Amino acid sequence: MFKKFKINHYINYFVIAVALIVFAILSFTGGIDNSTTLLLERIAISIILAVSLSLVVGFLGELSLGHAGFMCIGAYIGGKVSALLAQTGIGDGIGNLIISLIVGAVAAAACGVVVGIPALRLRGDYLAIVTLAFGEIVKTLFQNSSDNSFGGLSGLSTPRYNKTTLFIIAFVVVLLTLAVIQNFIRSKHGRAVTAVRDNEIAARATGINVTKYKIMVFALSAAFAGIAGVIYSFSQNKVMYTHFDYNYSIEILVMVVLGGMGSINGSIISATLLTFFDEKLRLWISQDFSKTQLAQFLTTYVIKGDLAVFKDIIYALVLILIVIYNNSPSLKGLREKLNLKKLLSKLFKRKHDPSKVKDDEARWDVVPTKIEMDEVLSTDVVIDDMGDNSADIGERGGNK
């Protein structure tokens, strides 16, 4: 059992758990401010979204642009349940949160099944268009809802969870997300999903139920997107439909692509860095850059008074540079020199010691066989009275 344990499969758990413990201690001791806790909440939500979308895009090989729609369903449905539970006296405690998470996940998963059915017939750009339309339909439905149901244009009012502990719960959900998705990928079901991605016709020929696995992946991915939406609703006093537009779906897709297709750890790192960069850039523009003469010139003659557009421009330029660095053939030599794995292997490279040679685990005296290897097989030839030769096979030193 211990030989099957591979430490590299659990590094992400250890890193997230250690970071969670450190920030939890700082939070309870007053070592971090509210802005940091809000940033940690955003990072946890981004990781859940990126990892769950990686299941569809990276491992199933389908292009989906409706992840913000699934998150919107979880945020509104889970937020509505939490508001109703708060009115009945359950309050905004952990029980309210757990029930809302379950309801939001189930609602989003059901919609994932609905979207997964067209995925059986569509691929590539056509599926992207369908999922994008699904996200816009969901947003429009909640936008035009009544005030008594989901708030309509004014948004849905939801109970705000305790800022000191919400990011802790969010990162616990991140660990749960990793446990479910990584174990699914490394199971026989995950191997079937990757087989469908590599060659669907060959997968069908080998007996893989492509229909079942496509719907399963879409439902599982949508469920965790709905969970992320519920956590988002608890991090806000009001859920607004404007947050779940197609730009947000593209932003989640960018996290997956930049982290590497089919790389869970890459999605985690990319989601963390992009969320951190986006938040710090927003604060820099609103606090420091807005006071400069360049900002006044841009708001007067270029972008008509909205510096948030300037933030999106910088964000897009950085993403373009990252994509060029990752894919440009002329930068291949630079990427190989700066490859983290190669740098670590050179740093921790062990010198070969001929005196320390491991025993051969496949040597004859340890391989289980039906015949002892120290016995020599022989063939005794016996000539009968008719002159025919017959072979009597026996074992010298054994029973004939």
Content of β-strand = 5-15%
Strand element count: 4
Element-by-element helix/strand order:
HHHHHEHHHHEHHHHHHEE
Total of DSSP H or I helical runs spanning 4+ residues: 15
Reported for the largest beta sheet, the result is: 2 strands, antiparallel
- Average of per-residue pLDDT values: 79
CATH fold assignment of the largest domain? ABC transporter involved in vitamin B12 uptake, BtuC
Helix content bin: 55-70%
**Please, how many domains?**
2
Shape: globular
Low-confidence stretches: 389-400
Which architecture of the largest domain would the CATH scheme give at its second level?
Answer: Orthogonal Bundle
Strand order of the largest sheet: 1-2
Given the helix and strand composition, which structural class is it? mainly alpha
- What is Rg? 29 Å
Task: Please outline what is shown here.
With 400 residues, the protein is mostly helical.
Explain what this protein looks like in three dimensions.
There is one protein chain. It contains 15 helices and 4 strands. With 400 residues, the protein is mainly alpha-helical. Strand 3 and strand 4 form a beta hairpin. The longest helix has 27 residues. The relative contact order is 0.13. The C terminus is likely disordered.
